[in-house]
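It is time I had a proper look at our fold encoding. Can you supply me with one protein entry, sequence and fold together? It will help me judge whether the discrete encoding reads sensibly. Leave the record below and I will have a look:
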Amino acid sequence: MRILTHKDELLAQAKSNNNGRTAEIVVHDGPLRQTLIALTEGTELSAHNSPPAASMLVLVGEVEITGADETTISEGNLKALTHVKHGVKALTDSVFLLTTVTGVDGIDSHGDK
């Protein structure tokens, strides 16, 4: 898959969806998941638990991570995500690659043992 080409298609889908978002899992290998997510400006993903490990690479736009560790991630930047409950808000039309590791023995969704 050509991620940089596919991001435009996903953003177009998000713009046509009533909820302003779309997502597609592009890699699923055991506990590893990589998901392309497109959000239109102002669209929010409500607060949710974090997996044991996660990172976000913003391909288009700018997003804000909300919650205890608020931060903004802009186009071209990669950031490891917090291990606490958080949400995501698109400050502009955005597409990002979310990489998560799930199901790690002995670690729950907040990184606690």
Observations:
- Strands lie at 21-29, 32-39, 44-48, 53-60, 62-67, 71-74, 78-80, 86-90, 94-101.
- The chain has a mean pLDDT of 89.
- The chain is about 10% helix and 50% strand.
